[in-house]
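Can anyone check this?
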Amino acid sequence: MAADLPNSVKQLSDSGAFSSLPLQLYASRDPTAPSDVDATLEPQIPTIDLSLLTGATPRERARMVQRLGRACQDWGFFMVVNHGVPEGLRQAMLEAAKKFFDLEEEDKEELRGETVLDPIRYGTSFNPKAEVGVRYWRDFLKLAVHPDFHSPAKPLCFSDVLRDYATCTRRVGMELLKGIWESLDLEENDMNKALKLDSCFQVFVANLYPPCPQPELVFGLPPHSDLGLLTLLHQNGVDGLDVEHGGKWVHVKPLPGSFLVNAGDHMQIVTNGRYKSTLHRAMANGKSTRVSVLTVVGPSLDTVVEPVAALVSSERPAMYRGWSYRQFLECHQGNQLKEKAVLELLRCRDHEDVI
């Protein structure tokens, strides 16, 4: 950021010194554009009852597996209820994240990483080094929590809460992946072999979107898909997530106690395009602070992710070339955030690898 401006959007928002945005850095939306949100779609967002995947009769499980497959195929996004993560733990994680962002700036500045694979990384926007002429209204903390666990030393409560939260959300992610794999008539052992999930690379992200003086001009985060297989998101009761469905945008209002889950780019790759990653965006607002915490479950860093052999045929050739998860992560987080740009780099053209 410019030397005469605060180093974080929280600092900028808290200062009260700006009634409008420093447009040379932050303007990224057209306030005159017509609304692209379809309010009729929000009630159609699928809901998955995890208890019917883990503790139900075979018939109930089969129905929920089928429902999960349809959600991944038609939406790439769904809500999960009855997931077994204690509500007290979910709220404690949100509170710990808020306490982190409330730390003195010098405490947080020590965590600004040098590379996208730094296990602890605090920052603003997405990747300021690659974002020329635009910033997004968001502060973040990213932590690698599996197979090796990392946490900031402050606040003191953070590490213990995060360890429990990471374990619980990883369990939920793995149960969902079992159901997704089953919906494709694939074996669980094939999933573990293809993705090396015993050493899955799990990332925890806390996002802070403070009140913005001109929310009509800026995104919290612009339309993008996530890397990895699944993202599980929980927020503090302030809405701000939109998902894309059928060329329209949908405001998401989560069910009480639910997780919001979206498929990532590596779900689209490994299923050979049968299940799609979801474009989504974070909207800024001028009144309330939004805090979200999310878990990204991915394959191991050194796994070469490619379409699973059972889903490739002469009728449906491989749509993507293989690339290690590490390579994808470095490319994705080392460039500007722009829809599915990195995924498209791996697309095979005319059934030939032209990259």
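Reply from J.R.: I decoded it. The first helix runs from residue 9 to 15.
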